[in-house]
Amino acid sequence: MRLIDARRDQYRRLAKDQGYRARSAYKLLQLNSSYRILKKGSKVVDLGCAPGGWLQVATKEVGQAGKVVGIDLKPVEPVLGATVLEGSIEDPAMLEKIAGILDGGKADVVLSDLAPNVSGVWDVDHARQISLSTIALGFARQILRAGGSAVFKVFEGDMLNEFRAELKKSFGRVFLSKPSASRQESSELYIVCLDFKQ
């Protein structure tokens, strides 16, 4: 078995053993271990939350004093401690709904693991991914409190630097990271953004 396959199986096995819905839960756990994004009592919004692995991590990390809201276009099985909304982040009514769930307040953290349906045509997939992340950034700018944090999934490519430059307009610190739970052969990266400037 190749090392890549072994690592993939390792996280799939771990997820099954530890009750996470997806191996992607370990990506967020690793990012959080490095950057301390999720804290007790935090209000978190998870964009593109299906199948719910990130919601499971977030609810555990923020505890009962926190609030976690997930949004996805498709139905998601309920996650204990989280509110899941079905719909689009481009729907203006979604912001109002979330503000209501957060007691009219702002979020401390926005997580975006959004990904396009991959076509296999690299330039097209990269452009779609950056477009989704740009929409997620627009959403984050409206819902985050000053000093808040965000995580955006991106694909490597020639539009990435431009997107990072855009992020730096809104956040004091911007880091590019590849958790070990990500497939090493994939072009998937995460951008961790701290110190949101309203």
TrEMBL record:
It is an enzyme of class 2 (transferase). GO terms for molecular function: rRNA (uridine-2'-O-)-methyltransferase activity. InterPro entries: RNA_methyltr_RlmE, RNA_MeTrfase_FtsJ_dom, rRNA-MeTfrase_E, SAM-dependent_MTases_sf. Keywords: Cytoplasm, Methyltransferase, rRNA processing, S-adenosyl-L-methionine, Transferase. The keyword Transport does not apply. Residues 20-196 form the Ribosomal RNA methyltransferase FtsJ domain. The keyword NAD does not apply. It catalyses: uridine(2552) in 23S rRNA + S-adenosyl-L-methionine = 2'-O-methyluridine(2552) in 23S rRNA + S-adenosyl-L-homocysteine + H(+). Pfam families: FtsJ. It is found in: Cytoplasm. Its EC number is 2.1.1.166. One of its GO terms (cellular component) is cytoplasm. Its main location: cytoplasm. Belongs to the class I-like SAM-binding methyltransferase superfamily. RNA methyltransferase RlmE family. Specifically methylates the uridine in position 2552 of 23S rRNA at the 2'-O position of the ribose in the fully assembled 50S ribosomal subunit. PANTHER family: PRE-RRNA 2'-O-RIBOSE RNA METHYLTRANSFERASE FTSJ3, RIBOSOMAL RNA METHYLTRANSFERASE. This is Ribosomal RNA large subunit methyltransferase E. It comes from Nitrososphaera gargensis (strain Ga9.2).
